[in-house]
Amino acid sequence: MAGRLPRWLVAITVAVYAFLHAPLLVLVVFSFNDSKFSAAWEGFTFQWYARLLERDDILDSLWVSLEVGLISTVVSTLLGTLLALGLARHRFRGRAAMESLLYVPIVTPEIVCGISLLIFFMFLKNVLHIPVVLGVPTIIIAHVAFNISFVTVVVRSRLEGMDRNLEEAAMILGADEFTAFWRVTVPQLWPGILSGALLAFTMSFDDYVITSLVTGPGSSTLPIVVYGMVRKNIEPSINAISTIILVVTALLIYASDRLSKPTALKP
Amino acid sequence: MMELRRAWLRWLSRHPSLRAWSVMFPGAWWLLVFFMVPLGFMFAYSFMERNVYGGVEAGFTIEHYARFADPLYMKILVRTVVYALGCTVASLLMGYPVAYAISRSGPWKNLLVFLVILPFWTSFLVRTFAMIFLMRDTGLINTTLMGMGLITEPIEMLGTPAAVMAGLVYGFLPFMVLPIYSSLEKLDPSLLEAAEVLGAKPAARFFRVVLPLSMPGVVAGSLLVFIPALGSFLTSDLLGGAKEIMIGNLVQNQFTSARNWPFGSAASFVVMGVVLLAVFAYLRSRDDDALAGA
Q1: Per-domain residue ranges for chain A?
Q2: For A84-108, what is the mean pLDDT?
Q3: Cα gap B249→B242, rounded to integer Å
Q4: pLDDT at residue A1 greater than cutoff 50
Q5: Most confident of A50-59, A68-77, A239-248, B2-11
Q6: What is the fold of A51-263?
Q7: Where are the alpha helices (DSSP H) in B32-160?
Q8: B13 or A200, which is more confident?
Q9: pLDDT band at residue B110, thresholds of 50, 70 and 90?
Q10: Bridge partners (DSSP) listed for residue A79
Q11: Which one is predicted more confidently, A86 or A258?
Q12: For chain B, what is the mean pLDDT?
């Protein structure tokens, strides 16, 4: 088939793939460049990676990011999966309202979401005198709020492709609804839940805009520290930390791909 | 215990709505309290008076929305919409051929789709930095051109409209490719054979069969690119700088240095308004498609 494509189309396609991937390759290559200011190749070095280890702020922020990422992923995956189950499996009053509630976070720009949460937290603190401290808890609340909908959409699409007969068969064979749910629905749904969780984790781990608005002193996530480095715009250490982030993300995607395959019932 | 469980299930089966809501309650509550209520606060703030220390004073005014008639802010709004539209058109022109090529690539299909999805999982901040690394004065493009002796002074790329546009397209192009690819994938090849048998030339087969049938993908992709481009903050912040601010930067600025919360809130709702217009236009076009299909 490939031979039948006109040459100009192949050329455009190659150019677009280069546009998508070459900048990142360049970034990775130059993380090993032995020159502080220039983008000319001056020899191989690991010094920018070594430099990262000397910076406590990077390591601290990595832990904050992991903490926020893991907690918000667990909470949003749980809540999002439950929402998907309700939407896909039940008839109920208020469906239109629930659907809109679900899609608002998906279309709302990050900056709007972040600012509105900031206003909300400040209102709780200054007007209602609830002791809200901006920091890890507020970041987690925000991340769960923007992740739930994405998890729901992913899990729901998996649920809709599933065979309901299996659950009914289990119930005919004597399982009650809880048992059928745990022993039949959940194992089948697992790949969907995993991809929802992975999406939630990457979005949480990567988020700068919302986090920067609802964070406080002393609780910087990795993207906040990286943003600061990008702003100062000098050291190739940014290339090094970027490379590490790229490699870890790639491994995560690969792992999730491997994990979700054996459990799939259909090819 | 078993008895209780059965009683609970019996009760739920008599109240289907309650059963659904008991499952959905925690998620719905979170979205309501930590998403809708804050948006509500923001909407209310956009009509209140400014407090110079940050925050608002009680009162009602539409002056913050009226400020968008000021050429300074009008310019930012227009620039934002133009950039978002430009990014959508550029992504379409680049993304359609790619989606088409993937759908005809046989054994390469999975790999090519994976390579389009990969950037989506990659840190947006890192990808934006990759653009900076290419375009800054000491970046790869300038260094290479100077090394080749083509230029003597670095070309100033950061802070220009071109840099912001490049960053936006780089960031959101994958969102265009995937929906178009999936609608091309569903296209029945026998339709093309039929067109060929009936004497349609390749161009006619494309414009009269393929393109119309892939329109749902084009429309969905355009929406998926337009919305984040419209609300983008990082791209214009890092690649555009002070000269090329978009409305997202204006909003952020009102809550940090300018300390004008009501105006920042109003600006947010102007963005939300444009987003909702785009979503409604999308839903209308989808419904029209459904009607046309029936």
Answers
A1: 1-45, 51-263
A2: 86
A3: 9
A4: no
A5: A68-77
A6: MetI-like fold (1.10.3720)
A7: 37-45, 63-66, 71-103, 109-121, 124-135, 140-147
A8: A200
A9: confident
A10: none
A11: A86
A12: 86
Q: Are the Cβ atoms of A16 and B37 closer than 8 angstroms?
A: no
Which pLDDT band holds residue A82 (cuts at 50, 70, 90)?
very high
Q: What is the DSSP letter of A182?
A: I
User: Rounded to 10 degrees, what is the CA torsion of A102, A103, A106, A107?
Assistant: -150
The neighbour count for residue B230, using CB atoms within 10 Å, is 24
Cβ <8 Å between A91 and B231: no
Is A24 in CB contact (< 8 Å) with chain B? yes
Pick the closest to residue A21 from B111, B100, B90 (CA basis): B111
Q: Do A116 and B122 touch (CB under 8 A)?
A: no
The DSSP annotation for B78-115 comes to HHHHHHHHHHHHHHHHHHHHHHHHHHT-GGGHHHHHHH
Which chain A residues are within 8 Å of B224, Cβ to Cβ?
none
Identity at B78, one-letter amino acid code = V
Domains and CATH numbers, chain B: 69-293 (1.10.3720.10)
- CA B203/CA A14 separation, integer angstroms: 22
Each residue of B189-234: pLDDT tens digit?
Answer: 888 888 888 888 888 888 888 888 888 899 999 999 999 999 899 9
Q: Which residues of B touch A94 (CB under 8 A)?
A: 17, 21
Please calculate the CA angle B72-B167-A248 and round it to the nearest 5 degrees: 135
pLDDT at res. B168: 94
Q: What is the pLDDT of residue B30?
A: 94
Q: Angle at CA B184, nearest 5°, toward B106 and A99? A: 130
- DSSP H/E element including B49: strand B49-50
B57 strand-pairing partners: B49
DSSP for residue B68: G
Q: What are phi and psi of A33, to 5 degrees?
A: -85, 130
SS (H, E, C) A135-150: CHHHHHHHHHHHHHHH
Look over chain A and give the mean of its residue pLDDT values, rounded to a whole number: 85
ipTM of predicted assembly, 2 dp: 0.87
Dihedral sign computed on CA atoms, order A86, A87, A90, A95: positive
CB A201 within 8 A of CB A207: no
